[in-house]
Specification:
Number of strands: 5
Length: 111
């Protein structure tokens, strides 16, 4: 499956992605990463993963489909900031609109 190249990704848009930790992510152009909801050891929080085209070992996201414009232009570096909580709530609601079973994927991994 091909992915959307880094140069074609648009800041502040929600994408269906193939990644290690989530299937929906908002693209943050300044950091070349996608912000999504990660679950680890029972905790849920916003987390960023880099676009595949940034290279190994950090580039783990292959965007597959552009879905909709997110209502955010900036993204915090601390997941405890209020904006991060707002982003989390919005992304959580989008998981209902774009459920995981509708977007099956495997973690891309570098080969």
């Amino acid at each position: 499956m091909t992915h959307i190249p880094l140069a074609e990704c648009e800041h502040g848009w929600l994408y269906h992605i193939r990644a290690r930790n989530f299937w929906l992510g908002i693209y943050n152009e300044p950091t070349k990463e996608f912000i999504g909801i990660r679950t680890k050891f029972g905790s849920h929080y916003t987390f960023g993963e880099d676009h595949w085209d940034t290279g190994a070992p950090h580039g783990t996201v292959k965007p597959i489909k552009k879905l909709e414009k997110a209502p955010f232009e900036t993204f915090p570096t601390d997941s405890r900031e209020q904006l991060a909580l707002d982003i989390f709530a919005w992304l959580d609601s989008k998981r209902n609109d774009y459920p995981r079973h509708a977007y099956p994927h495997e973690a891309p991994g570098h080969k």
